[in-house]
């Protein structure tokens, strides 16, 4: 009974007070939740008076900070509680000092891994060979330094013997897009770039190289410091103070520019200061002094594992005008100056006012400066007469016409004057060599082919940025230069009088001397001048300028150099300057296909054994199928025997024998037949190690017609200009001579073949033995 009464009493109590109890419980819950929300904020506000670092701190570091500053935190929290009571409502303000940076710490220097081996790589650029000679001196000095530091017992750290590369023959992407990868056998190897460059006032491969660095730095797809993996770099420049007395006027300006780009691309890893030398004032001593300092730095990198720390500004791309800042006060002042400069940015509200008043405001004129106003920039000459390029090309026998054109007498012209045979163009197309002028309106090229006869001395570039000579000046200049060289042959023993007289009337112009003729902005006007005097035109291009090729007027015969069948081989052999070289190449083939019924189109294949011969027949057949040229010339490379060729990896071992060329021609012809393409082997010239595959469009009545009827060509051309009557390559073809047919050697029986080094006697003896 008692338990029942108690239960009834509790029930009555609940019914009487349930609403106040529920309201009280809800109030407590709300207060607890509000307390939990407020509590973390107060802790954060009192526990950290310094803004958090952008870098995440480790748990150990955070625990140390909490333990070391526990008392300060309590004091600050008490002070902030007082401030909270008196503070007006508003946004919370966090106060504190920015954590001080370690002075002069270089980018990534605190994370540089320990270095076990340092590999110096010497890069140089040279036109006349002087810088190459100095680079070899540096090579020997660094080799000696590596030997002196060699320690057989220490297998963890060492200075390795240096490597050396000519910038004219390296692929920039291999060394200047990312740092070279260390070999798998020595993963701790890192590289130091030692760069020796001259400065010229003309366009050389160095301009292309600097342009490559510029593009790499500004390419949004590439990291801002792609060469940060290097251990360091240093640059040494050669210049001529007679031409540029001061650095401001250009003395060693290209070395300074190179140093600036390398500072940006490596992330401020200048290992040793930029060095200068005047080529006319003991450059050896300046180079030796720089080399000694460089060797000391290389030793430090080996011993300490990196460049270490430097003063503020170490490794910067540009030299600062500020004095050295030694203490925190000056550092803060410098930061203040930077902030003041940043404030000069126009506010959004001021833009309208600036736009309205800026155009009508008077232009400020400085009446106090006594110096002369800067002269407007003028277009540079491609090959100035005072340039090393001019000296190098004239030494090779070129006559420079104007500022960017040239003419040179061919060795086959000399041979034809003496009745000793003409080149393959006579066997294939009927061009007698002593009537042919070899010239170009543009000495600049956009490739650096490994087999180039010009030894890398001609200018290079991807766009025309020079003074442009009038085509009439070039036309008259090349004719005058050619005739002067012909006249110089009149006293040479063996020159035939009748051929000398014939040579004083130019009948053909081979626009293939050097450079890229189609690059000349007025190439069509120049061609019209040739044709107006009934001089046939054989124009050669390297398939890198599709826009110019598309707008080209009619020529007697249009060549395109096809030096490889795939992208990688083309990059290794031609070493093109355009980054989209393969796409340009493909566009040119498409244009050639469109023009095949208007122009006589020719593929010129230069075979370089070890580069573009092995297993590339199918690739070449693909290109022929794509463009369907009228003719395909296959020629073995001619070795020019210079140090520059050796630097490109080209030796006599890369020159194919004629039997190998014949085998390649036969294989290519079979592949074309297998595909149903109508081609056949039309002619050969064994002396030039060359053969011709022709389209069956030129196979009429069972005979090949690869030669050109030049008189007929000019008749058709003049008629086309007069009334617009079109014509095709078949309209001016001519039958190929029997002695030029495949299997007959291709040497004109009217000339005398001259053999050297007793070869003629050996051939006669072999013939007598067979007889």
TrEMBL record:
State the Gene Ontology terms under molecular function.
Answer: 4 iron, 4 sulfur cluster binding; electron transfer activity; FMN binding; metal ion binding; tRNA-4-demethylwyosine synthase activity
Database matches in Gene3D superfamilies:
3.40.50.360, Aldolase class I
**Superkingdom:** Eukaryota
Acidic residues bias located where? 318-330
Determine if Membrane is one of this entry's keywords. Answer: yes
- Enzyme group, top EC level? lyase
Give the compositionally biased regions (Basic and acidic residues): 58-87
The record lists the catalysed reaction(s) as:
N(1)-methylguanosine(37) in tRNA(Phe) + pyruvate + S-adenosyl-L-methionine = 4-demethylwyosine(37) in tRNA(Phe) + 5'-deoxyadenosine + L-methionine + CO2 + H2O
Question: What are the Flavodoxin-like domain coordinates in residue numbering?
Answer: 120-295
Positions of region (Disordered): 43-111, 303-341
In this chain, composition skew of type Low complexity spans 48-57
Q: In which pathway does it act?
A: tRNA modification; wybutosine-tRNA(Phe) biosynthesis
Cofactor(s) for this UniProt protein = [4Fe-4S] cluster
What PROSITE patterns does the annotation carry? FLAVODOXIN (PS00201), FLAVODOXIN_LIKE (PS50902), RADICAL_SAM (PS51918)
- Residues that span the membrane, as ranges: 17-35
Here the segments flagged for biased composition (Basic residues) are: 90-106
The protein depicted here goes by the name S-adenosyl-L-methionine-dependent tRNA 4-demethylwyosine synthase
Name the lineage.
Eukaryota, Fungi, Dikarya, Ascomycota, Pezizomycotina
């Amino acid at each position: 009974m008692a338990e029942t009464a108690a239960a009834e009493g509790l029930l009555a109590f609940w019914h009487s007070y349930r609403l106040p109890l529920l309201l009280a419980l809800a109030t407590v819950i709300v207060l607890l939740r509000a307390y939990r929300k407020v509590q973390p904020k107060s802790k954060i506000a009192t526990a950290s008076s310094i803004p958090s670092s952008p870098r995440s701190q480790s748990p150990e570091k955070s625990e140390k900070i909490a333990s070391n500053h526990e008392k300060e935190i309590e004091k600050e929290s008490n002070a902030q509680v007082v401030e909270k009571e008196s503070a007006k409502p508003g946004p919370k303000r966090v106060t504190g000092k920015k954590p001080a940076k370690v002075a002069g710490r270089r980018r990534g220097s605190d994370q540089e891994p320990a270095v076990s081996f340092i590999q110096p790589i010497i890069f140089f650029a040279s036109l006349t060979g002087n810088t190459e000679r100095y680079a070899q001196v540096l090579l020997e000095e660094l080799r000696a330094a590596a030997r002196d530091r060699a320690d057989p017992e220490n297998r963890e750290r060492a200075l390795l013997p240096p490597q050396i590369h000519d910038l004219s023959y390296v692929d920039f992407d291999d060394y200047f897009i990312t740092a070279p990868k260390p070999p798998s056998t020595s993963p701790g190897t890192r590289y130091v770039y030692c760069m020796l460059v001259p400065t010229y006032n003309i366009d050389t491969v160095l301009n292309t190289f600097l342009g490559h660095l510029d593009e790499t730095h500004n390419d949004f797809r590439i990291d801002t410091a792609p060469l940060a993996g290097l251990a360091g770099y240093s640059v040494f420049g050669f210049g001529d103070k007679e031409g540029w007395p001061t650095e401001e006027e250009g003395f060693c300006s290209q070395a300074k520019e190179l140093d600036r780009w390398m500072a940006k691309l490596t992330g401020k890893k200048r290992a040793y200061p930029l060095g200068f030398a005047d080529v006319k004032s003991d450059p050896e001593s300046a180079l030796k002094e720089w080399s000694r300092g460089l060797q000391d730095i290389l030793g430090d990198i080996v011993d300490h594992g990196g460049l270490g720390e430097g003063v503020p500004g170490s490794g910067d791309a540009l030299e600062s005008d500020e004095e050295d800042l030694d203490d925190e006060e000056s550092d803060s002042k410098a930061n203040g100056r930077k902030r003041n400069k940043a404030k000069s940015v126009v506010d959004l509200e001021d833009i309208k006012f600036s736009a309205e008043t800026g155009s009508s405001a008077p232009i400020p004129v400085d009446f106090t400066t006594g110096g002369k106003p800067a002269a407007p920039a003028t277009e540079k000459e491609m090959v100035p007469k005072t340039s090393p390029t001019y000296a190098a090309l004239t030494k090779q026998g070129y006559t420079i016409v104007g500022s960017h054109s040239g003419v040179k007498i061919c060795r086959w012209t000399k041979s034809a004057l003496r009745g000793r045979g003409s080149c393959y163009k006579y066997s294939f197309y009927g061009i007698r060599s002593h009537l042919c002028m070899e010239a170009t309106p543009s000495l600049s090229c956009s490739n650096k082919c490994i087999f180039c006869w010009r030894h890398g001395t001609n200018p290079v570039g991807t766009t025309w940025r020079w003074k442009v000579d009038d085509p009439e000046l070039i036309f008259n200049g090349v004719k005058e230069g050619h005739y002067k060289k012909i006249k110089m042959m009149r006293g040479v023993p063996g020159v035939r009088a009748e051929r000398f007289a014939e040579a004083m009337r130019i009948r053909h112009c081979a626009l293939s001397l050097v450079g890229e003729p189609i690059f000349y902005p007025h190439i069509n006007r120049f061609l019209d001048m040739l044709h107006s005097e009934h001089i046939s035109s054989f124009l050669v291009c390297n398939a890198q300028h599709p826009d110019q090729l598309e707008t080209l007027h009619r020529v007697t015969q249009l060549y395109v150099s096809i030096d490889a069948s795939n992208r990688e081989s083309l990059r290794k052999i031609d070493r093109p300057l355009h980054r989209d070289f393969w796409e340009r190449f493909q566009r040119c083939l498409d244009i050639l296909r469109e023009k095949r019924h208007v122009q006589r189109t020719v593929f010129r294949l230069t075979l370089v054994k070890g580069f573009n011969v092995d297993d590339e027949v199918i690739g070449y057949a693909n290109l022929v199928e794509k463009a369907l040229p009228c003719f395909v010339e296959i020629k073995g490379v001619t070795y020019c025997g210079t140090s520059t060729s050796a630097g490109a990896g080209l030796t006599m071992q890369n020159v194919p024998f004629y039997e190998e060329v014949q085998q390649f021609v036969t294989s290519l012809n079979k592949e074309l037949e297998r595909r149903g393409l109508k081609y056949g082997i039309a002619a050969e010239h064994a002396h030039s190690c060359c053969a011709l595959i022709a389209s069956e469009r030129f196979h009429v009545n069972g005979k090949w017609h690869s030669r050109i009827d030049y008189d007929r060509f000019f008749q058709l051309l003049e008629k086309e200009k007069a009334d617009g009557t079109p014509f095709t390559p078949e309209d001016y073809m001519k039958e190929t001579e029997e002695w030029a047919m495949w299997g007959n050697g291709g040497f004109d029986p009217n000339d005398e073949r001259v053999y050297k080094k007793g070869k003629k006697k050996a051939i006669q003896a072999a013939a007598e033995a067979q007889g």
